[in-house]
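[retry 2/3] Discoidin domain-containing protein: previous attempt timed out, resubmitting with same input.
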Amino acid sequence: MFYRGVKIFSSVSCSFKPRLIANWETEPVEFRTVLDDRNPSARYVTVPLGRRNAKALRCRFHFADVWMMFSEISFQSDTVIPTQITLAVTSPWPKEESSMPTTHKTGNLSTSCFPSPNPYHNH
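[retry 2/3] Discoidin domain-containing protein: success.
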């Protein structure tokens, strides 16, 4: 697929919300992949999230080429006892943001390719 401009993502930035009615935390987890232009076979990419607790997770994937391919996405989660969560102080009125809702536990996507919004801009 490399010859058609299809690669895995170059990096990902994941933000966390401690509660559904709260602002996104200011410290996202950043992860950069090691790009491999020689081996076109599928591979696992594990994004370490540092055992961060959250009710919502938002990850932004950055293009390494014109197209980005995902074969499957899964989330490993665990139940957290509420007394173990450190609550951050936030304003009572969260800012309006448009974002895609996420699910916890495990979700899968079928094989998909997503085009870069601007194929001439390197993200």
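[retry 2/3] Discoidin domain-containing protein: The CA atoms of residues 11 and 32 lie 4 Å apart.
[retry 2/3] clearing retry counter.
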